[in-house]
């Protein structure tokens, strides 16, 4: 396979990777989802992330039928990566993709929740020890040596079982010896042997090697300043040739910490003059010491490589364990921060292991382990800051013990402006995307079926034929194709005239039902819709008035089977109350009489406003 065969790798990117990594190493980096390697090679981190997502999970990426759905996915992983304990773990989180095999989703969910429970079970001191170990891992560059030290640190912290079980089978003494050996290589030693042996042995690894290097460096320094050596000897008043030779040998021996005999062995026999004798002696001595350093360095390297090879399995296990533990703990911290819980997934069966209580037995919507819908109890939108009102909602069949009806294939969501309708669609999208990746979800309980495509389409306030055409081309093909589709579509009336929007929405609802898909559609045109199919229902969100500081007070929990109202009197009431210009206020009061002056006055009274 060539680099150009990977999605997103064009001729320019391929040339960059070949020039820095070479074809084989670049392909290896792509196959192993190594964002850092591609980024260091000159590919932008964002592009590297998308290339690796496609390279390692292309089938899963087909889940996203629209740009808005992909945006939710990208933001979720960006949010999760903020809780990563290492840079490499953050990269692994960012390249997560939906899993097409339900068994893989359940396996990952098990691992993440086990890690979540492990993190919760640590006390503050233990958590800090874990984070310190991973911080040192990053500071050391994430090398094999750093992984060995991190594994030893995690073992020293007493972490055992579950998420940390992989550390228990490692021979700690062998790992420690291998770690010391690895630490001795300051260059490019690699267990794979690709660059093995080309790295320099670090200072402190071998006492004799350190001494030889110091002597060699001292001889080189004298060689570079041979004329200064001659001048120093002459300043001592030495004129006789034999005395000059003897003094030079003595001086060089003292400056290099070598014996006289060692220096004399490098001195030439037939030097023509004093300058030739000094330069030849220093040149020969530096060359001899170079050879001594290289010879002993090779001996030390062989011993170190043998030590690493002897514990190679333990080193490999440590590297893998540290990477996997960092990855799972990163997702665990994300789950703890947002109180994410296990959803019931399609195919979970009747083993009753769900932490959502009765939802784990499949219920009415989970017969034979089949989950054929999306249902949430106490769901929260992860992109909203501050206190968020949890909502309960369902599309399709479900077995949760909630008030939301089961069995409706399509819902039409209506209600007040700024009432949270789009936020609810986005919340359902978040829950579905997280579950598709085998991750816990932001809800007290949830059931999530398997989908081939998720079509999430936000309201786009552009009223022209081009936008309408682009929108229809975006959302209809996934619904018309093969596979199960979840439709989450915002206000159609924003892109065409209301009457035609109602016709289009009717057509989409009927197409959704005909294709066996599920859908939630937001609209203000419920009263204009033709009779909906029996398996569709209309839900409503209601504004309840203004707060004392004249903010819209909304009950974000939809009321099932009820058309929501936009209640414009609340908005007009706020405009009347906030207007300081007399003529402007008169204009808004005119609008108040049009929408119902009594209702406006009652709203202002309920808000305890005076002015």
Automatic annotation (TrEMBL):
GO biological process: mismatch repair
Segments for region (Disordered): 344-369
Listed name of the protein: DNA mismatch repair protein
Top-level taxon of origin: Archaea
Compositionally biased residues, Gly residues: 359-369
UniProt GO molecular function: ATP binding; ATP-dependent DNA damage sensor activity; mismatched DNA binding
Stretches assigned to the DNA mismatch repair proteins mutS family domain: 408-592
Residue spans of biased composition, Acidic residues class: 348-358
InterPro entries, alphabetized: DNA_mismatch_repair_MutS_C, MutS, P-loop_NTPase
Keyword presence, DNA damage: no
Organism this protein belongs to: Halorarum halophilum
UniProt entry keywords in alphabetical sequence: ATP-binding, DNA-binding, Nucleotide-binding
Transmembrane segments: none
SMART domains associated with the record: MUTSac
């Amino acid at each position: 396979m060539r680099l150009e065969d990977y999605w997103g790798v064009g001729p320019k990117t391929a040339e960059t990777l070949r020039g820095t990594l070479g074809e084989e190493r670049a392909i290896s980096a792509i196959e192993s989802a190594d964002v850092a390697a591609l980024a260091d090679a000159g590919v932008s981190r964002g592009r590297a992330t998308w290339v690796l997502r496609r390279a390692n999970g292309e089938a899963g990426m087909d889940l996203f039928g629209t740009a808005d759905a992909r945006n939710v996915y990208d933001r979720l992983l960006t949010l999760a990566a903020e809780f990563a304990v290492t840079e490499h773990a953050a990269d692994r989180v960012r390249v997560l993709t939906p899993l097409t095999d339900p068994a893989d989703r359940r396996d990952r969910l098990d691992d993440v929740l086990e890690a979540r429970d492990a993190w919760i079970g640590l006390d503050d001191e233990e958590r800090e020890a874990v984070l310190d170990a991973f911080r040192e891992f990053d500071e050391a560059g994430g090398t094999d040596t750093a992984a060995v030290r991190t594994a030893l640190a995690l073992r020293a912290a007493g972490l055992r079982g579950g998420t940390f079980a992989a550390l228990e089978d490692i021979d700690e003494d062998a790992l420690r010896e291998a770690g010391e050996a690895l630490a001795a290589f300051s260059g490019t030693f690699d267990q794979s042997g690709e660059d093995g042996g080309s790295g320099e042995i670090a200072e402190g690894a071998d006492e004799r090697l350190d001494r030889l290097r110091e002597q060699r460096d001292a001889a080189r320094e004298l060689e570079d300043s041979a004329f200064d050596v001659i001048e120093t000897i002459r300043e001592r008043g030495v004129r006789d040739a034999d005395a000059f030779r003897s003094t030079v040998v003595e001086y060089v021996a003292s400056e290099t910490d070598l014996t006289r005999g060692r220096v004399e062995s490098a001195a030439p026999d037939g030097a023509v003059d004093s300058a030739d004798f000094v330069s030849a002696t220093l040149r020969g001595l530096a060359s001899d010491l170079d050879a001594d350093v290289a010879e002993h360095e090779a001996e030390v390297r062989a011993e170190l490589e043998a030590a690493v090879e002897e514990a190679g399995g333990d080193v490999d296990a440590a590297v893998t364990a540290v990477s996997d533990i960092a990855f799972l703990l990163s997702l665990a911290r994300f789950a703890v921060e947002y109180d994410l819980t296990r959803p019931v997934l399609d195919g979970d069966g009747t083993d009753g292991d769900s932490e959502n209580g009765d939802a784990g037995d499949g219920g009415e919507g989970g017969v034979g382990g089949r989950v054929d819908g999306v249902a949430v109890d106490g769901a929260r939108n992860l992109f909203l800051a501050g206190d968020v009102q949890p909502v309960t909602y369902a599309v399709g069949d479900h077995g949760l013990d909630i008030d939301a009806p089961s069995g409706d294939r399509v819902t039409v969501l209506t209600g007040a402006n700024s009432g949270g309708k789009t936020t609810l669609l986005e919340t359902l999208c978040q829950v579905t995307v997280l579950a598709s990746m085998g991750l816990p979800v932001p809800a007290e309980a949830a059931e999530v079926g398997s989908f081939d495509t998720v079509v999430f389409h936000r309201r786009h306030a552009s009223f022209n034929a081009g936008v309408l055409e682009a929108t229809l081309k975006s959302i209809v093909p996934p619904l018309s194709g093969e596979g199960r589709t979840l439709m989450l579509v915002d206000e159609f009336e924003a892109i065409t005239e209301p009457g035609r929007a109602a016709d289009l929405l009717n057509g989409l609802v009927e197409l959704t039902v005909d294709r066996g898909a599920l859908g939630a559609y937001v609209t203000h045109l419920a009263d204009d819709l033709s009779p909906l199919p029996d398996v569709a229902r209309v839900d409503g969100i209601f504004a309840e008035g203004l707060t004392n500081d004249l903010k819209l007070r909304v009950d974000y929990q939809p009321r099932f089977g009820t058309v929501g109202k936009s209640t414009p009197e609340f908005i007009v009431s706020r405009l009347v109350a906030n207007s300081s210009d007399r003529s402007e206020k008169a204009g808004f009061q005119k609008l108040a009489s049009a929408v119902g002056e009594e209702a406006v006055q009652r709203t202002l009274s309920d808000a305890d406003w005076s002015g």
